[in-house]
UniProtKB/TrEMBL annotation:
Pfam families assigned: NAD_binding_9
Gene3D superfamilies noted in UniProt: FAD/NAD(P)-binding domain
UniProt xrefs under InterPro entries: FAD/NAD-bd_sf, HpyO/CreE_NAD-binding, L-asp_N-monooxygenase_NS-form
Protein name: FAD/NAD(P)-binding protein
PANTHER family: BLR0577 PROTEIN (PTHR40254)
Domain FAD-dependent urate hydroxylase HpyO/Asp monooxygenase CreE-like FAD/NAD(P)-binding stretches: 13-155
Length: 454
């Protein structure tokens, strides 16, 4: 008979091997833990969607100086890249280079602990709980036992817009990275991108690099586009956490922007953003999401200066326009589409012909519509629930999932964008690397040493 493993010998199962899951696995292995990393998309192993791009025009939105995978070694990525000068540290390198960095880190970690680490290809679809141990089921019937499970699912694919659902493939691309989105560009004159955020910027730059010389229109509710980083890194003096909240906080930030500039006003909030979010009640958070989120996003999540310059050049040449309004209807007319849209602040509709429509609305923002089988299974069991805003799952600050009754559970955790409802700012590398570092220390009992306990 096979020997039954005790719970202490069981691994920590990490579901999802993008940035969050990969970095958590690396940190757990450094703490001597057993780890199994489960990923359904082999091409995204150790990269995820963000860093899995193969397009060199897709740049990091954070300077190289702040892209280390480890909060205790902030120069790690710079050394890996071979950067040393201040000018190089300020560079925004291609995201594909960062994907290679992550994969190399994971390969090194696996090689250093071959008896404690494994990678399982497959989709996690269900979990069963028995005496503190968890049995994770994969599509196809395989199963694995673990002592704890961490959901590192990243961002969810966007839900197709109903207004565009009847357009034929080839005319409408619901996924901007689907093969064919940049094919046959010589024969078309006008491309409409639905959305004007970072996804749209990536799509615009890819179309431009692919040789497209026609017109592009980026349509979104407010017509906002991401702002640019400054050429050199921020030199922000640390400040105390603002005491104001709600509308008073908005006024205070605007006043700071008038005296320091908007970049500095936003940057000095960065160490405090998660605390500010947590001390606002649910109603205040909802008001922020409804009214201020789009403006926060374009100022907080910025473009590399070279990318912003190219976007500005395309606008200046008349080849690119950002417009604000609501898409009302869409119908095919031969090889083209006829879009009807209502400009923001107007009651009348306008017609917008398009040779191709590319949806760039970003990830699904409602976790209840994500359709992930494991997450749906945990919710059905009452072991997980959506957060108050349905941005992700309901977790306490440590990352423990709350069950249907709101009680945190040992052995079930989440990291990365899935915890946005608790932390809000948890999509950028500097935030996630600290989160997974802390969770790895907790799961590896390292939080009891180093002056923090024994």
């Amino acid at each position: 008979m096979a020997k039954t493993r005790n719970k202490a010998e069981l691994p920590v199962a990490i579901v999802g091997a993008g940035f969050s899951g990969t970095l958590l696995a690396i940190n757990l292995l450094r703490h001597g833990e057993n780890v199994v990393l489960v990923e359904r998309e082999e091409a995204q192993l150790a990269k995820g969607l963000a860093f899995g791009t193969r397009q060199p025009e897709h740049l990091l939105n954070v300077r190289a100086a702040n892209m280390s995978a480890f909060p205790d070694d902030l120069g790690h990525f710079l050394r890996w890249m071979g950067f040393s000068s201040d000018d190089q540290a300020n560079r925004f390198v291609p995201r594909l280079a960062y994907g290679r960095y992550l994969r190399e880190l994971l390969i090194d970690a696996l090689a250093a602990a071959p008896d404690r680490a494994q990678v399982r290809a497959g989709e996690a679809v269900a979990a069963r709980f028995d005496g503190g141990a968890i049995t994770l089921s994969l599509a196809g019937g395989a199963a694995l036992e673990c002592r704890a499970m961490v959901l590192a699912l990243g961002n969810f694919a966007p839900t197709a817009l109903p207004v565009l659902a009847d357009l034929p493939p080839g005319l409408h691309f619901a996924d901007p990275w689907r093969p064919g989105a940049t094919d046959g560009l010589d024969a078309i004159e006008h491309i409409v991108l639905v959305g004007s955020g970072l996804t749209a910027i990536d799509a615009i730059l890819s179309l431009d690099r692919a040789g497209y010389r026609g017109r592009m229109t980026a349509l979104s509710r407010r017509g906002l586009k991401p702002r640019s980083h400054a050429e050199s890194g921020p030199a922000v003096r640390p400040v105390a956490e603002p005491e104001a909240s709600g509308a008073a906080l908005v006024r205070a930030v605007r006043q700071r922007a008038e005296s320091l500039g908007w970049r500095a006003a936003i940057d000095e909030l960065r160490p405090h953003t998660q605390h500010i979010w947590r001390r606002h009640d649910e109603a205040s958070q909802r008001r922020f999401l409804r009214h201020l989120r789009p403006y926060w996003d374009v100022h907080r999540h910025r473009l590399a200066p070279t990318a912003a310059s190219r976007i500005a050049a395309l606008e200046g040449s008349g080849r690119l326009a950002f417009v604000a309004g609501k898409l009302v209807s869409a119908e095919a007319e031969g090889t083209r589409a006829r879009l009807r849209w209502r400009p923001r602040g107007s009651a009348s509709e306008q017609v917008l012909p398009a040779d191709r429509i590319i949806s760039c609305i970003g990830p699904e923002g409602d976790v209840t519509r994500a359709g992930h089988p494991l997450l749906d299974d945990l919710i059905a069991q009452g072991r997980a629930r959506a957060d108050a805003h349905r941005l992700g799952v309901d977790v306490e600050q440590s990352g423990r999932l709350r069950n249907a009754a709101g009680e945190p559970q040992d052995g079930l955790y989440a990291v990365g964008p899935l915890t946005k409802g608790e932390a809000w700012e948890i999509v950028a590398v500097p935030d996630i690397r600290r989160q997974v570092w802390d969770l790895a220390r907790y799961l590896g009992s390292a939080h009891w040493v180093g002056g923090e306990g024994l």
